[in-house]
Write a structure and sequence with these properties.
two-stranded antiparallel sheet; Rossmann fold; alpha/beta; homodimer; about 220 residues
Chain lengths: ~220, ~220
């Protein structure tokens, strides 16, 4: 699959490396052309790099791995609704805002980044997933032993199937993927983040954790 | 133990019944004296009922089972800081607000009900717990099979020990209780609620579910 990744931070390049190992055709996109980190990574992994627009153009699947509060801006720079129309857009971002010195979400409660993206780009087929675990676990769920749960939310059933297929390539068993319905489900997935951070502290900083939904 | 319960809704009376079955001395408190539901329940369970102040007076442990957005008001009516001073105050409430027609939290992101209560009543020993599961599961965790996780947060280590002891009487194994640190941990525990509601829908309304933290 031809996959474009927006964002050249740790999460973006973690996706890039895993997707190259799975033999996908990858372009990572940065805010500015010639981003040294992206260039270096692309050379080392036989992948392409360019602008946000370069990453989206020609991609069958777009992964938003930018910081959540800048996601709509980044996707606008990538060409907006015309460029994204019909494409599956996997949003793995979180609206983490540390500008006040303590962690808060830049949007929550009555809205979410997933919903903002779907509203801003109505012809994109937005699927929220993977934001509830650390980047390493996103692409290698076996870092956490046994069964544990990944959520998906989005308005387009076919787009969710594509994403669940990609999750399967990463190692997420279909039985462990829980469909939360339409894109408003991203609200709960993003608002889980403060609990995730508290759990991370309680497990002494071990990033290889997740939650499992257990049913009676 | 002499336990006072604030709130005569389903959660309050579920606690009352379970605590009476465990042979604790229980007083349920309502906003107004003579609340018919409370009177009827108390008669049937050889327990006492009265005002919020009656429930707090003489209690060694107070359980706040009122709606989160009214919790501080209810505790103020119960006598406020002088009445609560030194007492363990287990807050199981959630700030659910349906006044706009869709579910939202009345406080979140930079604050929480647990923190509001601790600030308003600085001499109470507030512990947040149990709000992350349905009332039936709170007092009967075996409704969900196998191991699953309960969180506690609070500033007072001894108060947390008292609460973990009570959780043990309900059936929560100590190894499944995860201490999230001080009362600011209640922020994540309350912000988990939108995800809880989404999961509830995804499991077709089966209230007997919880999450388990799985670590690599």
């Amino acid at each position: 699959m031809r996959i474009g990744i927006l964002g050249t931070g740790t999460v973006g390049l973690t996706f890039g490396t895993r997707l190259r190992n799975l033999d996908h055709d990858v372009t990572v996109g940065a805010r500015e052309l010639g981003n040294p980190r992206a260039v270096e990574w692309a050379e080392a992994h036989a992948a392409a790099c360019g602008t946000f627009a370069d990453a989206v153009s020609g991609a069958e699947l777009v992964i938003n791995a930018t910081a959540g509060q800048y996601a709509v801006d980044a996707l606008e720079m990538a060409g907006g609704n015309p460029a994204l129309a019909g494409k599956v857009l996997l949003d793995v971002s979180n609206p983490l805002d540390f500008s006040t010195g303590e962690m808060r979400l830049s949007v929550c409660n009555t809205d979410s980044v997933g919903e903002q993206i779907q509203r801003a780009f109505p012809d994109a087929r937005v699927v929220k997933s993977l934001n509830t675990v650390n980047g390493s676990v996103m692409v290698e769920p076996s870092l956490v032993p046994g069964a544990h749960t990944m959520f998906v939310a989005g308005n387009d059933a076919d787009a969710k199937r594509v994403v669940v297929g990609l999750l399967g390539e990463f190692g997420w068993a279909a039985k462990d993927v829980l469909d939360l319905g339409d894109i408003t489900g991203s609200r709960g997935m993003e608002m889980y983040l403060p609990l995730w951070v508290s759990i991370l502290r309680a497990v002494d900083g071990n990033l290889a954790f997740n939650i499992k939904v257990v049913e009676g």
